[in-house]
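task queued by scheduler; priority normal; single chain, no ligands, no partner chains; default sampling; output format set to structure tokens
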Amino acid sequence: MRDLAARFVRHHADTLFGIHLAHAHFAVPDKTVLLGVNHETPHCRWANATTFQAIDLNNVHGHVFVLTDHGFHPYEYQASPVPDLPQVEDTFLAELAGFLSRNKLETVVGLQIIDRHPFHMLELVLPQGTVMLDVSNANGCVPTRQTGWKFEVENGEVRVYQANEVHGQTRTGHEVYNKGDPHPRLETLQDLEDVLAKAGILFAA
């Protein structure tokens, strides 16, 4: 991990990028992508399978990337302006790709644009989506598997830190709903709040 961290720091990529444990919870339907949107009340990041036509191409960017034969390809997107990349050196992606390939990590580790917020978030699975929920709002949920790491320089030394995002588990598992049950309506933020409240997960405001 320290060899990987040193590459991020050397190329000045540590303030923007971290690494993410590449994983998927469901097959994204054809002609859709997984698009995350941040919300303040409740504080969460809700990622849904979203049709191409519904995406504002002027307000979207890749969020998590995996290495393919054609370079780094996003498998999850974020609805927000493209982040500023001026300080990241041009050779960073090529060197990182070489490192992952040599160590056979292409399908294990993804590249993630990190959110340096101070909040700890738990990821739960929804029908055709996920929600990263602030732990202060997550009733009866516990962290399970760490999914992200970030890198910093402290007193001249490269440090590896856990990112503030982990898998969360409810009383019944990682998923908010029971497989086989009819999918709940999930079209608006209010729908999401209702589903989480019904499952006993979301604290009342």
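post-processing summary
- Residues 2-198 form one domain.
- The radius of gyration is 18 Å.
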